[in-house]
Write a structure and sequence with these properties.
The protein is α/β, with parallel strands linked by helices. It is built from ten helices and 19 strands. It has two domains: 199 residues, Ribonuclease Z/Hydroxyacylglutathione hydrolase-like (Metallo-beta-lactamase, Chain A, 4-Layer Sandwich); 134 residues, Rossmann fold. The chain is 35% helix and 25% strand. Helix 9 links the parallel strand 17 and strand 18.
Amino acid sequence: MQVSENIYRIGGAYLVIGDKTALIDAAPRGGEGALIQEIEEILGGRQLDYIILNHTEPNRSYGLGAVLERYPDAEVTATVAGIRNLKEMQSRPFCEQAAKDNAVLNLGNGITLRFIITPNISWPDSMVTYEENSGTLFTCDLFSEGEKLMTYPDYVENALKRLSELKITAVMPAEGDVLQGTDIQKAFDVYYGLLDKYREQEKNKTVLILYSSHYGATREMAECIRAELENAGATVTMYDTDDDTIPDINTFSAIIAGSGTYERGASENVTRALCGVNAVLMRHKPFFTFGSHGWSGEGANILHTMLVSLGMKPFSKPFTSIFNMSDETRERLKRHTRKFAEFILN
């Protein structure tokens, strides 16, 4: 589909035609045949000079091999990390050029492509491509995907800041409609709204307590922890994983997870809930684990090890009680929780 005088859209890819020609992004598995067919029809016997991959996720780059089979002399351009990935993905050598930030590729006939490195949107090797004369921005996943990109909010914010300084007349995403006019600012505003939401969550110092309790002793510990946190001024959400639907675990500032010990293991429901921890978003956020047990007491330790492996920051060793809490154990748990509250609130 022709979207402007010199630009054609082929699925999630774009073909740009000047004195030289460039394909921006490729196709997912199964889309290679249609991609090659449309390129051939549009070029009408001309050569494809460049293949530009804004990032190398297979749903954008899988068709590269087929394009190189048809146009073996085309030069492949991607970020340094992107070129490295492509060398691992492809079973054949290819002509390559690593894109540096703000590097320019002149296709002739008034078409100049500028590469802007935007790492972690949504892969570490990502960039966008900007056609300077027409103000056309080829964004790949940016403006294709919304909240999914917020795994790296700081990188999204930096990318928006850089791109807002450009004179953009059209946005060409990999998915969704081409954006023009007021729709461009609306697309920016969506991401600004997501960033505001993320910053507000960071500021609120919210604590999530997750637990499972077969006989009530671990529940009693969870209720004690909640009371002390709320008295200290923290915003607390508590869920029994055996009964409740768990919210997005990655929107909280800290996690406290509790489990009894069942056949030397932790509660399946709690461990399943903790599998939802995003190791990027929750990295370095504080946690501690707790639980009541009878004979062996591995449950809270298993949760602790799991959260450490996901990059969260342990506040302490697991806090455990043998069967129901004694008065002395309850007072120790209260003191422990107050220290945790001071740690996260200050």
